[in-house]
Amino acid sequence: ESEEDTKENPALALEDSSCADSGPTTSQLLGGKGQLGLRGISKRCGSTSKIDGKVLPSYEACVTLSWFTIRSKLYASLEDAIECHIALLSVKQAVLQESATSTFNFDDSIRQNIQAFRCQFKLVFNANFSARRFVGRQLYTPVTMDLDVALAARHSLLDNVAGGWPSLRQAWIRIQLHGGVNLRAARSQADLETLIQRWEEDDSSRRAKVELRAARQAARQAIREQALAERCQRLRDRRRLHVRNLVARYGSLDLLRDRKEAAQRRNLNKARLEWHRRKDLTMAEILRGPPM
């Protein structure tokens, strides 16, 4: 579904994203994408062991619903991460059930259903929005522990979608300037403008490649269709020529048959005429009659 469809139907929007969507992170992934085969649980680099110097893995739980991501802190124990993920899934399920009601409000539902777990688990939040039709990528807001700030950032992105990419672009820059809990250094507006400009250039290049690929595919398809049309035409011409040859052959056979029958009639008439002119016919020949 498109962003507009899911915005009009919250129940659809709640299921539009994968729980395993990593988004912006504050730690480096440990091998590949860090997925363990458990949806919503990521394995990441943790602390270094003081005994053997090995990097100990850490685990993070997250769920994403309706352009909003809830993440846990990094756990040293996979069991703790799974426990947190189960709690986050219960929040998502509760919000999904409430979305079917006429009085549903996303912000209120999130606040109410997550309240019971905020003391038990250390959670952070951020909004994510698909801007692929504009710049070919996802937009993420800064990760923050302030739920209200994250929800406000989500609303800011959604409210500016109708204004197109220029409006959404400025909204995202304003949100980024407020910062979050990411470990990376805060960016200035000039840095953000430069980053977005690079995205736009990359997207223009990507779109040009897509259009070129589509044009090449269309050209190849046209060549295939032309070759097929020519082949079909050759087959039709060959059949037409074959039919003409058959007609000519049957015509010549008919003419040969007619000539043969005419010759037979001439010979018969000649024999009958000679029979009538004979003066030496016997009674038996007269009774038998002329040649037939």
Describe the structure.
Residues 1-24 are annotated as: Disordered. The chain is of the alpha+beta class and 292 residues long. The chain has 2 domains: 3-186, no CATH class; 187-292, no CATH class. The protein has helices at residues 3-8, 10-13, 78-98, 106-118, 132-135, 147-159, 164-177, 189-277, 283-288; strands spanning 41-48, 55-65, 68-72, 123-130, 138-140. A 5-stranded antiparallel β-sheet has the order 1-2-3-4-5. A hairpin with a 2-residue loop joins strand 2 (55-65) and strand 3. The longest helix is centred in the C-terminal third of the chain and has 89 residues, at 189-277.
Strand tally: 5
Percent of residues in helices: 55-70%
Query: Which spans of ≥5 residues are poorly predicted at pLDDT below 50?
Result: 1-37
Backbone CA Rg: 43 Å
Described by strand count, sense and barrel closure, the largest sheet is: 5 strands, antiparallel
Helix/strand order, N-terminal first? HHEEEHHEHEHHHH
Number of DSSP helical runs: 9
Sheet with the most strands: spatial strand order:
1-2-3-4-5
Give me the secondary-structure category. Answer: alpha+beta
Strand content: 5-15%
**Overall mean pLDDT:** 81
Amino-to-carboxy terminus distance:
92 Å
Region (Disordered): 1-24
